[in-house]
Amino acid sequence: MDEKTRTLTLHVRQLRGVLLKLFIAAIFIGGAIALFRFGLLPLLGKLLSLGESELAAVRRGGILLCLLLGYWGYVHFAEKRRPTELGIKPGSIALSALLGVAMIALASAVLFACGVYQLNEYRGFDSALFGVAGVILVAATLEEVVFRGVMFQALESAWGTVPALWLQSLFFSVLHIANLDSNLGTPELVVTVISGTLIGAFWTVLFVQSRNIWVVAAHHAAWNFAVLLTGLPLSGLDDWRAVAPLESSYHGPNWLSGGTVGPEDSILTVVLVAAVFTAILLWARKSRRLLPAAPQ
Questions:
Q1: What is the 3-state secondary structure (H, E, C) of 212-269?
Q2: Of 236, 263, 162, 234, nearest to 204 (Cα)?
Q3: CA dist list (Å): 264 to 21, 100, 270
Q4: Is 127 helix (H, G, I), strand (E, B) or coil?
Q5: I need a labelling partner for 101 at 20 to 30 A (CA). Which of 164, 222, 224, 228 fits?
Q6: What is the pLDDT of residue 212?
Q7: What pTM was estimated for this model as a whole?
Q8: Cα–Cα distance measured from residue 285 to residue 291, given in angstroms and rounded to the nearest whole number
């Protein structure tokens, strides 16, 4: 067998291993959530006579719990290791959440100051924000478990940290296109994929440095909730703007304002994320957190 054939065979075997890990993880995590969502939850709703808001709270809590149990089962039984990335680190989690708020707040504040964003009205606190915060926390944790916990680590075990970081982040970004307006033009879509890939890469390198799901989920959730509070679109979603304490509008070119996608697509946010990503990547490299490809 020549060198080219041997290399191709190795890559096929590695890809097969990655896909098998993803399939097994989907069974553990998806199965646990499905059993709760379509089995236990309706039963609890009837037995406890839960109202709509109570049922929604139980749904969010149950999905989060089953997500973690499913991931624990996958890591324990399939990967045969301890899920150390689920350890609770209060200090690091709090700092990460503050960083998430600070980053998006800085970018948004500059755009407000420049008149790109405009505050139309202060509406005050809406109690519905508690429910929205719960949804954002569960969604952020779900994405971090799936993309950083499962997909990234499966890819990293085969091809090393850096290729896995970019490949997983591109996939993360492309999947988020489903949130966008179907009438969005090609230039806007390209910008969204680039910014989404960069944000995904940032959260991945934060995971690489911390090796902790909660640290990254805290940043992710705090970032998303901070965007929501400004009254601007969140990753192309407009649904929650009605409960934001601020009613805001955006003006100017999409490359500056982010348009219907929101602050995440602004060039200012892209530059800020790129700068922080580079700093953490250099820190991770200096700390020897970057893993090489699996030996051939």
A1: CHHHHHHHHHHHHHHHHHCCCCECCECHHHHHCCEEEEECCCHHHHCHHHCHHHCHHH
A2: 162
A3: 31, 12, 7
A4: coil
A5: 164
A6: 98
A7: 0.94
A8: 9
What is the end-to-end Cα distance of the chain in Å, rounded?
A: 15
Please tell me the predicted confidence (pLDDT) of residue 10. Answer: 80
Q: Where are the domains of the chain?
A: 1-82, 89-296
Q: Report the pLDDT value the prediction gives residue 185, as an integer from 0 to 100.
A: 72
Which residues make Cβ contacts (< 8 Å) with residue 207, sequence separation at least 6? 85, 144, 148, 152, 213, 215, 216
User: Among 201, 177, 197, 198, which Cα is nearest to 189's?
Assistant: 177
CA atoms within 13 A on the CB side of 228: 24
Residue 263 tokens read as: 């602050």
Contact 195, 264 (CB under 8 A): yes
pLDDT digits (tens, 9 = 90+) for 108-127: 999 999 999 999 999 988 88
Give me the pLDDT at residue 113, please.
Answer: 96
Sign of CA dihedral 258, 263, 264, 270: positive
Output the CA torsion sign for 149, 152, 155, 161.
negative
Whole-number Å distance between alpha carbons of 204 and 63 = 23
CB 176 within 8 A of CB 234: no
Low-confidence stretches of the chain (pLDDT < 70) are 1, 179-184, 294-296
pLDDT score for 3: 74
Q: Look up tokens 């969005």; give the residue.
A: 184
Secondary structure class of 118 (helix, strand, coil): strand
> Rounded to whole angstroms, what are the CA distances from 280 to 37, 85, 86, 177, 203?
38, 18, 21, 26, 10
C-alpha radius of gyration, the chain, whole number: 20
Residues contacting 62, CB < 8 A, separation 6+: 36, 37, 40, 41
Q: Yes or no: say if 164 and 156 are a contact pair by the CB < 8 Å rule.
A: yes
Cα–Cα dist 195/276, whole Å? 14
